[in-house]
Amino acid sequence: MKIYDLIGIGFGPSNIALAITLEEQKQASYGIESFFIEKQPDFAWHANMMLDNAHMQVSFLKDLATMRNPSSHFTFINYLHQKNRLQDFINLKTFFPSRYEFNDYLTWAASHFDHCCAYGEEVLEILPEKHGSEVELLRVRSRNQDQVVNERLTRNLVISIGGQPRIPDGFRSLKEDSRVFHSNSYLKEIKRHPNAKRIAVVGGGQSAAEIFMDLHHRYTAAQVDLIMRARAIKPSDDSPFVNEIFNTDFTDHVFNSSDQQRTEILSEFWHTNYAAPDLVLIEQIFNVFYRQKIAGIEQHRYLRRHEVKQAVSQKDGIQFVLHDLGADRDYIESYDIVVLATGYNRDYHKYLLAPILPYFEDMRVDRQYRLRSVTQFKPAVFLQGACESSHGLSDTLLSVTATRTQEIVQALIHSTSNQSASGQLKRAMPSALAY
Ligand SMILES: Cc1cc2nc3c(=O)[nH]c(=O)nc-3n(C[C@H](O)[C@H](O)[C@H](O)COP(=O)(O)OP(=O)(O)OC[C@H]3O[C@@H](n4cnc5c(N)ncnc54)[C@H](O)[C@@H]3O)c2cc1C
Ligand SMILES: NC(=O)c1ccc[n+]([C@@H]2O[C@H](COP(=O)([O-])OP(=O)(O)OC[C@H]3O[C@@H](n4cnc5c(N)ncnc54)[C@H](OP(=O)(O)O)[C@@H]3O)[C@@H](O)[C@H]2O)c1
Q1: Given the CA of residue 399, which atom of ligand 1 is nearest to it?
Q2: Measured CA distances, 371 to 156, 164, 238, 402, 404 (Å)
Q3: Do domains 3-163+346-419 and 166-236+273-340 have the same CATH topology?
Q4: Ligand 2 contacts CB of residue 103 (under 6 A)
Q5: Is the pLDDT of residue 424 over 70?
Q6: Domain 166-236+273-340: which CATH class?
Q7: Ligand 2: which atom is nearest the Cα of residue 307?
Q8: Is the Cβ–Cβ distance between 140 and 9 less than 8 Å?
Q9: Residue 416 pLDDT
């Protein structure tokens, strides 16, 4: 069986940026043979949240390449140039393209790597390939859309699988009820409920805010309740001094801080990213409620300081026991559909790595995102997007995507050189790309 130098799990922005860095390293004659496995049938960037008017929350300059190599073929500016839209984009006068356009940019970038990415395959688990007492290789087991299980061997692994929908405990028993779904599958699911009249949106982050406005426009007569524990929807702070926490050198600062300092930094700046919609969106929502006041109707409701104590599936709806934290009282409401805009968990890599967990010291990564392992374990395993607690709030975002891949590739070159028979890694590999 063929042995790859590197297999990447997931082909979202993090691993596309890595593929680009590896490609550009090839031109510097460091050849690392890589392959990527993506569970979606084609490239798509959070497709079920591709809502009208949704915009990027980061400057287009923090694209897949610019921060690492502004002269790369894969910059957003070169994409515009290739698509003959550069001048039109300039006339838009924005740093924040639509998510629709950024998805098109990412799709364009991903398309360069079709020869080394298997789409429509979900990685199920990673198994050790032992030689004596040492683990030399990893066996990556995946299942394609025809339910066929594939296996591939690799010397190193990069896991960049993004977040998994966070479902609050009280909703887990409703998993099979199609009337309850997470924001992650919003567009796919909402189309199945054209006649919904009572809708609950749980959460107070960017996803909840975007979905509330989408529902407001999508259903003229439905009642939408926006339910959150917070006292107010607070805006994401992207003012310049605060935004410095997303600078690449801040990653060093966070990583080199003590555990306690890191916890304090994360907590101080938590609301730059989480439970923090854009101010413009908050103003739009406020305006909806204000117009209701003028009209003297209460179509939608803003249920702040509310908790869902219980959710029960009934024939004619999903029944909530809501707890009003302000008034300290419970009451019952029933909904036709419930959208859980409750954020994401980022620990699924532990399930994929379950068969090799004993080889890792403590599931912490080093500065170059490599999981610390025992000496008998030779492969390097890197994590992208699951290192917020050690590397800071930029880890789940696009901010450091380009520079992070440079750090990983440097560690990979070191690791692969040690693994290669000659101890050298200077294999000139012809580029498979025409650009
Ligand atoms: C709606 C939405 C909008 C966002 N907008 C912004 C923004 O404007 N700016 C910003 O900085 N950040 C934004 N983010 C944060 C987001 O995390 C990053 O933009 C970016 O998507 C991170 O890239 P990634 O490759 O690490 O993860 P993802 O984009 O989540 O990609 C992970 C990929 O791995 C695949 N995968 C998962 N499990 C497996 C498996 N077992 N086998 C094979 N493939 C698998 C997934 O299908 C997916 O394609 C947004 C997040 C959401 C939810
Ligand atoms: N256009 C865009 O660019 C765009 C669009 C959508 C998302 N995003 C990004 O995607 C990331 C995630 O955003 P998100 O809005 O999906 O998630 P989020 O910011 O993590 O917000 C999750 C919300 O759910 C609430 N919540 C979590 N668990 C809950 C529970 N058990 N019960 C009740 N409420 C609960 C949280 O409330 P508490 O605060 O009370 O815990 C919070 O209000 C962010 O980086 C965001 O910027 C970007």
Answers
A1: 11
A2: 11, 20, 31, 20, 15
A3: yes
A4: no
A5: no
A6: alpha beta
A7: 33
A8: yes
A9: 80
Q: Of all atoms in ligand 1, which is nearest to the CA of residue 13?
A: 25
* Fold (topology level) of 3-163+346-419: FAD/NAD(P)-binding domain (3.50.50)
pLDDT of residue 396: 98
Domain ranges of the chain: 3-163+346-419, 166-236+273-340
Burial 210-226 (b: 16+ CB within 10 A, else e): bbbbbbbebbeebbbbb
Distance from Cα 252 to the centre of ligand 2, integer Å: 26
Among protein residues, the one with the nearest Cα to ligand 1's atom 3 is: 46
pLDDT at 429 over 80: no
Contact 122 CB / ligand 1 (< 6 Å) = yes
**Distance set, CA 66 to CA 71, 99, 303, 331 (Å):** 7, 18, 42, 53
* Residue-level pLDDT at 417: 75
Instruction: For residues 54 and 88, give the distance between their C-alpha atoms in angstroms, rounded to a whole number.
Output: 19
Question: Residue 152 — φ and ψ, nearest 5°?
Answer: -135, 150
Average pLDDT on 238-256 reads 96
Q: Which ligand is nearest to the CA of 58?
A: 1
